Structure to design on (242 residues):
């Protein structure tokens, strides 16, 4: 929940300017709902794609204040679902997130499906249990052949400056991929899994150098065009290596 409409448009224009030569990786901007149209205008004609930060699972109806997949479809290629803040602050359950994931893919929107454990769960050695449950429940009933992106965001690392270590994040994402295989089968082998949690231009290389980590879900660092562009460019360079 950052930026006014004008600020979001200016930030998107600055990012597009920083990345105007192209990168070879997928770049997605996910502004607040009220800024989607203006940001979409700023990135039109570029390779940058547009995504939303959330979505309701129904197409229409008496759900005041919610945004449906049919509303997002004309503008957005992606939507973030199950973010830890939605789960923790707004009480979204695995079942609710699963309904949103299925609604998104049915509408032709690619979900960026988030999973992650709390500090208490991590310290209690329950990371595997929590992530396996979230992945299994969140992807249950996924239509075959539909694309989903998974984002691992350890809650204890989000906005705290306490990022996970690259190697351990890679191992955990390997576990997530294995859990996904139990639900979506061989599609899990090519499913992109991102790391999110205090990602910066300084530490991004540590994460995307890991074979299991396909990219990043960037939070605070995306509010500065130069920092975000640096993250994108470093990721592109490292992922281009054999």
């Amino acid at each position: 929940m950052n930026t006014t409409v004008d600020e979001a448009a200016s930030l998107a224009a600055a990012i597009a300017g920083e990345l105007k030569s192209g990168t070879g990786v997928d770049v997605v901007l996910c502004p607040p709902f009220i800024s989607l149209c203006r940001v979409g205008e700023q990135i039109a004609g570029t390779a940058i794609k547009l995504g939303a930060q959330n979505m309701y699972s129904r197409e229409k109806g008496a759900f005041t204040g919610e945004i449906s997949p049919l509303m997002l479809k004309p503008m957005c290629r992606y939507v973030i679902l199950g973010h830890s803040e939605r789960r923790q602050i707004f009480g979204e359950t695995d079942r609710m997130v699963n309904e949103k994931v299925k609604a998104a893919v049915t509408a032709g929107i690619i979900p960026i499906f988030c999973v992650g454990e709390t500090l208490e769960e991590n310290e209690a050695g329950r990371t595997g249990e929590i992530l396996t449950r979230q992945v299994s429940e969140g992807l249950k009933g996924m239509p075959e052949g539909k694309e989903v992106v998974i984002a691992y965001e350890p809650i204890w690392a989000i906005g705290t400056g306490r990022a996970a270590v690259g190697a351990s994040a890679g191992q955990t994402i390997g576990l997530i991929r294995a859990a996904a295989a139990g639900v979506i089968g061989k599609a899990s082998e090519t499913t992109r899994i991102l790391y999110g949690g205090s990602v910066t231009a300084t530490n991004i290389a540590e994460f995307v150098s890991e074979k299991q980590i396909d990219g990043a879900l960037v939070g605070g660092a995306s509010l500065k065009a130069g920092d975000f562009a640096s993250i994108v460019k470093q990721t592109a360079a490292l992922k281009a290596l054999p």
